[in-house]
Amino acid sequence: MIGNINCAGGAYMLKPLKIGKYTAKYPLIQGGMGVRISGGSLAGHVAKCGGVGLVAAAGIALNSEFFNGRNYLQAEPEAFKAELKKAYEIAPDGIIGVNVMVALADFEQLVAAAIEGGAKVIVCGAGLPLTLPGLTAHAPDVALVPIVSSVRAAQLIVRKWDKGFHRLPDAIVVEDPDTAGGHLGEKMEIIGNGDYDQYGTIRGIKEYLQAEFPQASIPVIAAGGIWDRQDLLHALEQGADGVQMASRFVPTVECDAADEFKQAYLNCRMEDIGLIMSPAGLPGRAILNNSDNIRQYDLDHHTTCRMGCLKKCSYKETGERFCIVTALDRAQRGEVESGLIFCGTNAWKADHIGTVQEIFDELFAGEIPAEAQKAA
Ligand SMILES: Cc1cc2nc3c(=O)[nH]c(=O)nc-3n(C[C@H](O)[C@H](O)[C@H](O)COP(=O)(O)O)c2cc1C
Fold first, then answer.
1. Could you tell me the pLDDT band of residue 10, with boundaries at 50, 70 and 90?
2. With a threshold of 0.85, does the pTM exceed it?
3. Which domains are present in the chain?
4. What is d(CA 161, CA 177) in angstroms, rounded to the nearest whole number?
5. How many angstroms does the Cα of residue 226 sit away from the middle of ligand 1?
6. Atom of ligand 1 nearest to the CA of 247
7. Using the 8-state DSSP alphabet, how is residue 254 labeled?
């Protein structure tokens, strides 16, 4: 065995992460963060450090040179490709991918733009990406990665992809609704009641894949609540093949958000983080101190839906709740009084703004042995 590392619970192997045709030096995906929290800069620097960097598609046109105030859906693909280009300028040989939410109105166009922009990996959550292999059939090297929160959702996707497209996922991300940031794949009333078992779900998916597709080697990745090296080692020890981390990358120099957004992470307390019902019909985890102002902003400015960013949206349909894409955009630009600041349960742990490299140094201490790299 190579690269064995001992930790409290026993021995396991810390090894590179193979997703389809690509092998990341470290078993880490940086979670996609919209709106423009993980753009080309963050994704590029994560890829440069040896992880998988993801540009998030949601709202990418906003605050870009391609958006003229009226052409949101038209501007999205170009803005998305421009961010991918930026990421590749930082890490020309890096593993750079995208996160495209299934719930987005322009999901299909953004998947096409991701391929045109050279994305190596497409990660999709906020809905079941049942049609994804069909949309990407002309680009078979692009790795396809669904995000799920249950064994059942994983089974549904795998069966559909296998039957309909003779394609299996190249990895599966399991997102824990009790800890992850952003939109969550579970009902509000169930989140945090203690029933959800993140690593039980991961092991259940691995058992299913092993039983049905014993020849396939599909990594299962833990997302949600992973902040430091101890969390990473715990996830691997519990059976995950890698981790997806998002909130930890917000307080970095390279993160694409305004300083005020990063500062909000540094200032927040554990009790400030909670759940908000998104107009997308899903709960989301965020810093809640300003939640009244988010709705008030739309009332004060007499706004109506101008972007049409989501397939289904209570704000678009009935004016209920608030415009999510502009609330996320305000936060990203530093208007944190009225913006929506998504974060995971660990965001309160942020105590300084560091660099992406420092996070990799702390998490991995440089320790993927050369033999493990070669063997991957
Ligand atoms: C600011 C922020 C924005 C996010 N935006 C997205 C998104 O656009 N699409 C998505 O699938 N997940 C999104 N997420 C979820 C993350 O990709 C990730 O899976 C999750 O936050 C992992 O938990 P952690 O933040 O505790 O590491 C977002 C999370 C945060 C904190």
1. very low
2. yes
3. 4-257+351-369 (3.20.20.70), 261-333 (no CATH)
4. 24
5. 12
6. 25
7. T
